[in-house]
Design brief:
Pfam families: Fer4_22
Keywords: Iron, Iron-sulfur, Metal-binding
Radius of gyration: 22 Å
InterPro entries: 4Fe4S_Fe-S-bd, 4Fe4S_Fe_S_CS, Helical_ferredxn
GO molecular function: iron-sulfur cluster binding; metal ion binding
Structural class: alpha+beta
Organism: Fluoribacter gormanii
Number of helices: 13
Length: 379
């Protein structure tokens, strides 16, 4: 756990935290149950949180269940991460208008949005956000819409207390302990939260709550929560040297496993939609009916669509085998060439939300010759 000052926040203070964030000018979003899943939406009252709810995840399966523990963050994750808050699924980039003389004028579009405070960000999601930062902020041409949202995003992170069967963040080196990119970090224990700040604005919010310092036993419980969560995970990405995995994949572009997985893959793009790091998008024109104006819009796209690889009148990746191979080799391979990191954070969403239950750790294991299951030592 961090060496920062640890405070204890009882459950009764959780609503005060929301009020403090609202008073500071933030609109709060947090996890809540909707349509059989845990999603992030506007959060006004702590009663909206998924109290006593846990998710059971399998390849191609997601189900919520009631548990006896009175906890608000006892789940692993849902289909959303931070990505939809910063990189919108669809938005206008610029507008063009025609005046009475027929001249065109172009104007960049920067929507007016209230600063957001996200409650419940997990370590894998924060790792994914730092990767998206490389794409949209640290590139040669930063995206002003993403950049503004990122600067105005207040993050209340939560250390995971539970790993689903599809989590493998330990193997990816991204969790389950939150170590960076947060304003406030909470670890849920039996009667509340052990809390630390990660920024000046986070400390200012905590100061206003007048919390007492956490006791040693509470800090120990918080540390044990993270250790227990890490020990629950069994899936893994093959090879300890992830750049070595990159070299192995590109040395096996004709491996028979690509054809085998293509027989199961639907090319539906679900994996890219729920992935917290995928950033592929297309740009389209939305003209008015009278031709007086038009909006240039950006919307999420997927490397599993035929149009994604359309180049000079030809579809380069014309079948599912090539599209799945492109997705996986880019995600855990050539991403290193672009951003000096893997594009996989081990959240397991692509496994859970695949309609046919394709497990990327199994596909990587088949190509590498390793097992994707970490064998636990006997007591």
């Amino acid at each position: 756990m961090s060496t920062k000052i640890s405070y204890f926040m009882p459950y009764l203070k959780l609503q005060s935290l929301l009020h403090a964030l609202c008073d500071a000018g933030y609109s709060c979003v947090g996890p809540q149950v909707r349509d059989g899943a845990i999603v992030y939406d506007v959060l006004n009252n702590v009663d909206q949180l998924p109290w006593r709810i846990r998710d059971q995840q399998t390849p191609g399966g997601y189900q919520l269940e009631k548990i006896s523990e009175h906890k608000a963050f006892a789940f692993a994750n849902g289909p959303q991460a931070i990505k939809p808050l910063l990189f919108k699924p669809q938005e206008t980039v610029w507008k063009v208008k025609r005046d009475n003389e027929g001249k065109l004028s172009f104007q960049p579009h920067q929507p007016e949005e209230q600063p957001l405070a996200m409650i419940g960000a997990r370590s894998c999601d924060l790792a994914a956000m730092t990767i998206q930062d490389k794409v949209f902020i640290e590139s040669a041409h930063p995206d002003p819409r993403y950049k503004k949202r990122r600067e105005h995003l207040f993050i209340v992170a939560v250390n995971c207390s539970y790993s689903s069967n599809n989590c493998f963040c330990v193997s990816a080196g991204t969790g389950p302990e939150v170590k960076h990119s947060f304003d406030i970090l909470m670890t849920e224990i039996n009667d509340g939260f052990v809390v630390i700040s990660g920024s000046e604005r986070g400390q200012a919010i905590l100061d206003g709550l007048h919390l007492s310092k956490a006791k040693a036993i509470q800090c120990t419980k918080a540390s044990n929560v993270v250790e227990h969560t890490a020990a629950m995970q069994t899936k893994r990405i093959p090879l300890d040297n992830k750049q070595g995995l990159r070299d192995l994949l590109f040395a096996n572009l004709n491996h028979s496993r690509w054809e085998e997985v293509a027989q199961r893959c639907l090319s539906c793009g679900n994996c890219t939609s729920v992935c917290p790091t995928c950033f592929c998008h297309s740009e389209v024109e939305k003209p008015s009916l009278d031709g007086s104006c038009s909006e240039h819009q950006r919307e999420w796209d997927s490397c599993f669509t035929a149009g994604h690889s359309y180049l000079s009148g030809k579809v380069i990746r014309e079948d599912t085998r090539k599209r799945y191979r492109q997705w996986l080799t880019h995600k855990v391979g050539s991403w290193f060439d672009q951003f000096d990191t893997s594009g996989c954070v081990g959240c397991g969403r692509c496994v859970t939300w695949c309609p046919v239950g394709i497990d990327m750790t199994e596909e990587l294991a088949a190509i590498s010759g390793e097992s994707n299951v970490r064998i636990k030592e006997s007591d």
